[in-house]
Amino acid sequence: MEVPLWLALLAVGYLGVKLIRPPAWLIAVLLLGGFLLADSVLAPAIDIFIK
Fold first, then answer.
1. Which residues are within 8 A (CB) of 10 and not within 5 positions of it... i.e. 6 or more apart?
2. How far apart are the C-alpha atoms of 34 and 51, rounded to whole Å?
3. Contacts 24+ apart (CB under 8 A), 20-24
4. Are 19 and 25 spatial neighbours (Cβ–Cβ below 8 Å)?
5. Helices 5-19 and 24-38, interaxial angle, to 10°?
6. Nearest residue to 35 via CA among 1, 12, 2, 17
7. Which of 4, 11, 14, 17 is the most buried (most CB within 10 A)?
8. Residue 11 and residue 25: Cα distance in Å, rounded?
9. CA atoms of 43 and 48, how far apart (whole Å)
10. At 2, is the secondary structure helix, strand, or coil?
11. Are 47 and 14 in contact (CB under 8 A)?
């Protein structure tokens, strides 16, 4: 099953806010960091864990 990265990040962010209730800035940093990593040279390494 292939899941788009943006959908995976959205689901993780939503569940993180609902279950753990971290500060909003932390969720924003994690989501932005994931988005930026997806377009970097590390993308193939991340792709292994998502598929």
1. 31
2. 16
3. none
4. no
5. 160
6. 12
7. 17
8. 17
9. 9
10. coil
11. no
Sign, Cα dihedral of 41, 17, 15, 20? positive
Contact 13, 33 (CB under 8 A): no
Between the alpha carbon of residue 22 and those of residues 1, 28, 49, the distances in Å are 29, 11, 24
- Please give the backbone phi and psi of residue 4, each rounded to the nearest 5 degrees, phi first: -60, 145
pLDDT for 48 equals 83
Report the amino acid identity of residue 16.
G
Instruction: Divide the 51 residues of the chain into consecutive groups of 10 and give the mean pLDDT of each group.
Output: 86 86 85 82 81 72
CA 31 to chain centroid: 5
